[in-house]
């Protein structure tokens, strides 16, 4: 069983990486989960997962001629497999984003759920690839106009590539009566399930500072609880890992040069 | 619409327009801003808007290159940023004359709308509303997010533009083969379709300037 989700937002600052790892940990209670930092230009998942000193990262898999193996860049952390991305600009520039497809295909062979932490903007091919590759997208929004506007754009980009919205997480929600109404109204335009309203909490920043996912650092915090609810509402679809991997390879992997 | 040319006070790239709106409010700027998204999700990459400011409070908005006026100009401008911002000072009398021109009526925006739309900062929006003269009071009671979501026309326009742009960019990036057919809305909540189109063989593109940001400039989370 494999389904690949791109976790996307459109606008920075929505807590996408926090959400990716929180959903990953929550889903890992029932599924075999692999989380990939596909935001190769602004990688930060490694800081959230305590992998600052990872020797081999996704960058090493994307550089032509590098002979790193996918498994060397895969780390068992917090009940998940985590593929962090490095932060070196030189490595980013040397990386061939097209190789992400092969990496995803290889990982798809051996996991139930793939979560791709996706870039905030969609201004380049490398930034758009995760939503092209994924089966469905999880959109992380804040209840603000710029964030909603960008979320709508991301959704339409994804749909253009046949990637529908699995669900929407409203993150960093402040205590405000109008949020429920806003979420209801927004659901008319956004696809998939309304997965959760996740409150703005200090525990999220504390977890980031500690280099731990929220669900590991403060599992009883209301924000962690909301992410577990979100994961519970996300219906992971059955599919054969082998067929998904084959689809990635044959459908979207460019000819190797 | 013609606003007389002012004196350039500063020009910079900002990731959050709240910084700009707060500074012009603090200094009670009279003049205008020229705002240009640097990593626009917008079609032509040439979108920019002029936003006039009277005593620190946004007044008119328009896109000099398109027909977008007022609120529509702001909608076109909304992007994940960053923005290039030019701040100009202008003589109060010259600005007042521009504001009183007949064609200016359609360009007027509620004082706090630019802050709400482009910066999403409610605290600053409230400050802007307070600073606005009484005759420009906008409906602070209406939740800006609810007002935005109730405006189906604007939302449809954002979606249509995003679809058109997605297709245009796909052609640039050699990803056309990955697109699914149809210009339709797609069913909300419809099951995903596998992208089982024949393999594309895109040429690699150089990376966009917005792609890589040095670690020291990164937020804690994105």
Structural features, described:
The complex is a heterodimer of chains A (257) and B (222). By secondary structure, chain A is of the alpha/beta class. Chain A has one domain: P-loop containing nucleotide triphosphate hydrolases (Rossmann fold), CATH 3.40.50.300. Helix content of chain A is 42%, strand content 18%. In chain A, helix 1 packs across helix 11 (222-233) and helix 5 (99-108) runs antiparallel to helix 12. By secondary structure, chain B is of the alpha+beta class. Chain B has a domain at 7-152. Classes of the chains: A alpha/beta (257), B alpha+beta (222). At the A-B interface, helix 1, helix 4, helix 6, helix 7 and strand 7 of A face helix 4, helix 6 and helix 7 of B.
CATH superfamily of chain A: P-loop containing nucleotide triphosphate hydrolases
Strand order of the largest sheet of chain B: 1-5-2-3-4
Quote the distance from N terminus to C terminus of chain B.
38 Å
The radius of gyration over CA of chain B amounts to 20 Å
Shape of chain B: globular
Total number of beta strands of chain A: 8
Helical proportion of chain A, percent range: 40-55%
What are the secondary-structure elements of chain A, in order, as H or E?
EHEHHEEHHEHEHEHEHHHH
Number of DSSP E strands of chain B: 5
Count of helical stretches of chain A:
12
Low-pLDDT parts of chain B are 183-219
Q: What is the count of DSSP helices of chain B, taking H or I runs of 4+ residues? A: 7
CATH architecture of chain A: 3-Layer(aba) Sandwich
Amount of helix of chain B: 25-40%
Rg calc of chain A: 17 Å
Counting helices, strands and paired strands, the structural category of chain B is alpha+beta
CATH C-level label of chain A: Alpha Beta
Oligomer: heterodimer
């Amino acid at each position: 069983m494999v389904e690949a989700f791109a976790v996307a937002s459109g606008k920075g600052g929505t807590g996408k990486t926090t959400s990716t790892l929180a959903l990953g940990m929550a889903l890992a209670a029932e599924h075999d989960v692999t989380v990939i930092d596909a935001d190769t230009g602004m990688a930060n998942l490694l800081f959230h997962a305590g992998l600052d000193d990872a020797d081999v990262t996704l960058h090493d898999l994307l550089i032509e001629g590098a002979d790193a193996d996918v498994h060397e860049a895969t780390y068992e952390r917090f009940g998940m497999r985590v593929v962090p991305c490095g932060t070196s600009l030189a490595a980013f520039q040397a990386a061939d984003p097209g190789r992400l497809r092969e990496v995803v295909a290889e990982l798809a062979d051996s996991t139930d759920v793939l979560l791709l932490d996706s870039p905030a903007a969609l201004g380049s091919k490398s930034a758009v690839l995760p939503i092209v590759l994924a089966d469905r997208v999880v959109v992380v929004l804040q209840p603000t106009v710029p964030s909603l506007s960008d979320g709508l754009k991301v959704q339409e980009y994804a749909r253009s590539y046949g990637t529908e919205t699995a669900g929407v997480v409203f993150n960093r929600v402040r205590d405000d009566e109008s949020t429920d109404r806003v979420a209801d109204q927004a659901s008319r335009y956004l696809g998939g399930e309304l997965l959760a309203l996740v409150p703005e909490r200090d525990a999220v920043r504390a977890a980031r500072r500690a280099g731990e996912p929220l669900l590991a650092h403060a599992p009883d915090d209301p924000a962690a609880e909301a992410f577990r609810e979100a994961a519970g509402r996300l219906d992971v679809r059955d599919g054969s890992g082998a067929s998904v991997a084959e689809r990635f390879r044959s459908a979207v992997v460019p000819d190797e040069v | 619409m013609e606003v007389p040319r002012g004196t350039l006070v500063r020009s910079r790239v900002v990731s959050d327009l709240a910084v700009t709106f707060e500074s012009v409010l603090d200094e009670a700027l009279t003049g205008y801003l020229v705002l240009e998204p640097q990593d626009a999700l917008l079609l032509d990459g040439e979108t920019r808007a002029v936003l006039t400011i009277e005593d620190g409070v946004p007044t008119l908005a328009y896109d000099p290159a398109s027909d977008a006026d007022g609120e529509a100009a702001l909608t076109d401008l909304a992007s994940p940023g960053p923005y290039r911002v030019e701040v100009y000072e202008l003589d109060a009398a010259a600005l007042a004359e521009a504001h009183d021109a007949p064609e200016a009526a359609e360009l007027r925006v509620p004082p706090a709308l630019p802050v709400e739309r482009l910066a999403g900062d409610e605290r600053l929006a409230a400050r802007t509303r307070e600073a606005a003269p009484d005759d420009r009071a906008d409906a602070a009671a209406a939740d800006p997010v609810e007002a935005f979501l109730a405006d189906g026309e604007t939302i449809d326009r954002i979606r249509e533009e995003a679809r058109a742009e997605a297709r245009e960019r796909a052609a640039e990036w050699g990803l056309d083969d990955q697109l699914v057919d149809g210009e339709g809305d797609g069913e909300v909540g419809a099951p995903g379709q596998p992208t089982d189109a024949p393999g594309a063989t895109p040429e690699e593109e150089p990376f966009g300037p917005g792609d890589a940001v040095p670690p020291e400039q990164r937020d804690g989370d994105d």
